[in-house]
Amino acid sequence: MDKRVKWGIIAGIAVALVAGGIYTQLPKQNEELAAADKVVSAQPKGKKALNVNAQVIRPSTLRDEILISGSLLPDEEVDLSFETSGKIIEINFEEGTFVKKGQLLAKVNDRPLQAQLKRLMSQLKLAEDRVFRQNALLAKDAVSKEAYEQVKTELATLNADIDLVEANIQQTELRAPFDGIIGLRQVSVGTYASPSTIVAKLTKVTPLKVEFSVPERYAGDVKVGAGLEFTLEGNLTPFEAKVYARESKIDPMTHTLTIRALYPNANGRVMPGRYASIRLNKDEIENAIAVPSEAIVPEMGKDKIFVYRSGKAQPVELTTGLRTEDRVQVLEGLQVGDTVITSGTLQLRTGLAVTLDEIN
Homologous superfamily of 66-75+205-285 in CATH? Predict the structure, then answer.
C-alpha cells in the first residue's frame, strides 16, 4: 500500500474520532422544556387580566382620632386625719373595704369634753326656767326688762358653750367624707394622733377620671362631651369615657392642654393609677363616603381612584375631605354602590382588564 494512502486513512480516522468527542460535549435539547415551549406557543396571544381586590362603597361613620396616652385618677381621694390631737381609742374599719359617707372610722379620747358637756347640760334646765320666770314677771311689770334680758343672755351664752363643746367632740371623730375604698391604716389603737397624723387613705373609684394632654394644635378640637376610648395593658377590651372638663390654659412649658374625661367604672373593677392608651374622637361624620387611603393615586396635583366597571379599570377624579390614619372622605366623584379597586393601583391603567379576587 502506498505510504500516502496509508497516512491519509490514519488522518481520516483521527479526524472522525475528534469530531465524535466534540459532538458528545455539545448541549442537548431539554425535551420537557421543548414540550413546554410548544404549549406556550400554542396558547392564544393577548393581554392577561390583572388580579385585584375591591371594595363596594357604603355609607359609614368616619372618625378623626388622636392616639395619646394618659392615666386613670380616682374621682376623689384624701388622706384621712383627725382635726384635733389625742390618743386613739377606737379604729372601726377594715383595711381595703368599702365605707359609706359619714361612717365612723376612728376616734380619739373625748372624756374631758364629755364631762364639760354633761356639766353644761345640767345648767341648761335651770337657765331655761329662770328665763321663763323672768318673762312671766315682766308681763306683770314685777321685774325690769333689763333683768329679763340679762337671764336671756345667760341662756344664749350657755347654749353657745354647749355648741362649742359638741363641735370639739365631733373633731375627735374621724368619719368618711364620701363613699369609697379605705386603704391600709397607718396607726394603731393607743397612738397619739395630731392633725398631721395620717390614719389611712380614702379613695372613690366610681367613677374614674381619665387625664391626658393634647398638643396645642388640637386644643380647639377637643370639646366637652367628646367621646373617647381607652385600653389598659393586659386588656384589649376598649373602655368608653366622655370629656367633662378642660384646663383653663395651655401649659407654657409643654405647650399642651390638659383634659379630663369620666369613665363610669360601675363595677369598680378598674383601679386608679393605671396607664391608659387613649383613642380620642376629634371629629365624627355620619353617613360618610370613605375609601382606603392606599387606593387613592395622586397625579398632577389631583387625587384619582380606579373603579371597576364592566371588567375594566376606569379612573375617577376625586374631591376629598377629612383624612384619618387609614381612610379618606370623598366629597365628590363617587357614589354609594360604586366598586373601588383597592390593590395594584400602580399597575392600573385606563381600560385595563381586571379580575376581582376579593370584594369587601
Answer: Efflux pump adaptor protein, beta barrel domain (2.40.30.170)
